[in-house]
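Appendix C: a fully annotated inverse folding record. The material below is reproduced so that readers can follow the format used throughout the book. The structure is listed first as tokens, followed by the designed sequence.
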């Protein structure tokens, strides 16, 4: 954690589903997931999410069935990034079965209004067992990533972040789509944050989640995207593009860095 809480950046939440192997065996039901970040945002599982002890690269993952399963945590003032810039990262492995639909990675809305706050999702075209997805984030503006052919059971690192006034997507360390749009950080923090599904309807992920990270950094501070990608790729056995700073080696570790 000390490697990523830098002068111009701050970890808001960091859920490592592989570390459930400390208390769970393969096939066990997940009840909660601890936050490895500084804010203690524990996730609570709903609707029968199981632990896969060997989900990806000999590490455990949470199996999302696409059957209205989800993780939730009460929203918190610690997630209000204000004028700072937001970055989110997910390691996931799609399960390409069934009909196509919108699948939410992150959904956060205020409790007292119908307007969504921040949502990050992808659309699976031609059925979940089809070939393509497109990735979006929305609040007042909409950002759309490129269509991309998925491979069933393959691990991916997807990230979204605000850079130089736009929202940018990355897939396995490669830019995905044309930067555009914006995300407002004025969160009311009186609702529920949902991981892996929409808050009020079943638009859940079909596949497995290994890790989810939320970071903010100041407008003048550089993104630490490559550092996070390097950590995730080397941990989960996912290839980064040639020339990536951490293509072959993870970031140098300090006393707190694990993985």
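Designed amino acids, in order:
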């Amino acid at each position: 954690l000390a490697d990523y809480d830098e002068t111009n950046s701050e970890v808001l939440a960091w859920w490592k589903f592989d570390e459930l192997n400390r208390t769970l065996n393969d096939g066990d039901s997940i009840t909660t997931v601890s936050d490895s970040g500084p804010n203690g945002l524990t996730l609570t599982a709903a609707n029968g999410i199981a632990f896969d002890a060997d989900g990806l690269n000999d590490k455990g993952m949470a199996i999302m069935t696409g059957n209205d399963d989800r993780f939730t945590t009460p929203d918190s003032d610690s997630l209000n990034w204000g004028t700072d810039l937001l970055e989110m990262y997910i390691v996931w492995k799609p399960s390409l079965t069934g009909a196509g639909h919108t699948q939410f990675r992150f959904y956060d809305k205020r409790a007292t209004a119908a307007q969504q706050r921040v949502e990050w999702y992808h659309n699976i075209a031609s059925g979940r067992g089809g070939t393509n997805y497109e990735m979006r984030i929305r609040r007042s503006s909409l950002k759309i990533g490129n269509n991309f052919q998925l491979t069933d059971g393959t691990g991916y690192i997807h990230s979204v972040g605000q850079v130089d006034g736009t929202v940018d997507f990355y897939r396995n360390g490669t830019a995905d789509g044309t930067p555009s749009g914006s995300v407002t950080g004025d969160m009311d923090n009186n609702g529920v944050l949902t991981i892996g599904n929409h808050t009020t309807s079943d638009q859940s992920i079909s596949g497995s989640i290994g890790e989810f990270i939320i970071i903010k950094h100041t407008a003048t501070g550089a993104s630490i995207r490559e550092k996070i990608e390097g950590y995730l790729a080397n941990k989960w056995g996912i290839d980064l593009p040639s020339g990536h700073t951490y293509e072959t080696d993870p970031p140098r570790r300090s006393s707190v860095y694990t993985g």
